[in-house]
Design a protein that fits this description.
alpha+beta, DNA-binding, four-stranded antiparallel sheet
Length: 274
DNA sequence: CCGACAACCTGTGAGC
DNA sequence: TGCTCACAGGTTGTCG
């Protein structure tokens, strides 16, 4: 479900309900996520006030008044979602965890359990899961075509795999990788070290553009992504190639092709993308 | 260091 | 209608 735009949409939806509120504890119904939810989670955060909800890559970071550094790390994996609900709302299937506030809960649902909810007292940026992450595409200023070009030196993976590598740039998942490469007119299969510097400048611009527009549309809903208020994201209507195998290319009309690249389905126009 | 691939888990939709 | 199978938006770890 969630790439950067969906995580950012989630963050914007729930943050206003949380900031300034005091945590009354956590209810863990299923601790077996990608990593086990810490046994001491509830004890650690009870009585703490929420200072803010930040995003780094596809991680959501709940900053509290104590400890001074760190807090709660959340990741939605492939199928996770977060909603604000009245405290007495009965949990449904796969509602693995609640963070409890006075009259409401932040409820975490994740059928496939690829996500995670962790506690850390070290600065978020130093946590092992976050330490190696590359630049934020929308906010860092470090994300440039030159940097992409440099990251490609000495590598020969397909360019689609390069931009999905979290050490190169974060937040570009399978949907927006295909979409960005379509806009940049680059064949996703092309070896990343066989692409000119100026094309990487174009690609960086296209990545930023696609992610920005997806956030403005409230994310992409393919099967089950919904906002905290239950409404879908509308960016799927703006997808040019993703999930559109056989449909005409919006640019030239040739049928869009799908092919597995690096174990993931990819969509592109053989005619427009070189 | 690099790249390919399996693994984690459940739900869904296509096809028979 | 009901069954089976392939596949799904992410990330990590292992192996050669």
């Amino acid at each position: 479900m969630p790439e950067l735009p969906e995580v950012e949409t989630t963050r914007r939806g729930i943050a206003p309900h949380l900031v300034g509120e005091m945590l009354l504890g956590a209810t863990v119904r299923q601790a077996g996520l990608r990593q086990r939810v810490p046994d001491a989670l509830s004890q650690q955060l009870t009585g703490r006030h929420v200072l803010g909800l930040e995003r780094r890559a596809k991680y959501l970071l709940l900053r509290l008044d104590q400890p001074r550094e760190g807090g709660v790390i959340l990741h939605l994996g492939m199928s996770g979602s977060l909603r604000i609900l009245p405290a007495d709302t009965p949990p449904g299937p796969h509602d693995h965890l609640d963070l409890r506030f006075n009259d409401r809960v932040l409820r975490y649902r994740d059928p496939r359990r690829f996500g995670l909810v962790l506690w850390t007292e070290q600065p978020f940026a130093e946590h092992p899961l976050l330490r190696h992450l590359g630049p934020e595409p929308l906010t860092s200023g470090e994300f440039t075509g030159a940097r992409l070009h440099k990251a490609a030196i000495g590598r020969r993976v397909a360019v689609k795999n390069l931009i999905m590598d979290n050490r190169v740039v974060v937040g570009v998942g399978n949907i927006y990788a295909s979409e960005s490469l379509f806009l940049a007119r680059i064949d996703p299969r092309r070896a990343c070290n066989r692409i000119a510097a100026h094309r990487y400048e174009t690609l960086a611009i296209c990545i930023r553009s696609v992610l920005t527009k997806a956030i403005e549309a409230g994310g992409t809903t393919l099967r089950d992504f919904h906002h905290e208020d239950g409404k879908p994201g509308y960016f799927s209507q703006q997808l040019n190639v993703y999930n559109r195998a056989g449909e005409p290319c919006p640019c030239c009309g040739e049928p869009i092709r799908s092919q597995v690249i690096g174990q993931r389905s990819s969509f592109f126009c053989v005619h427009c993308q070189r």
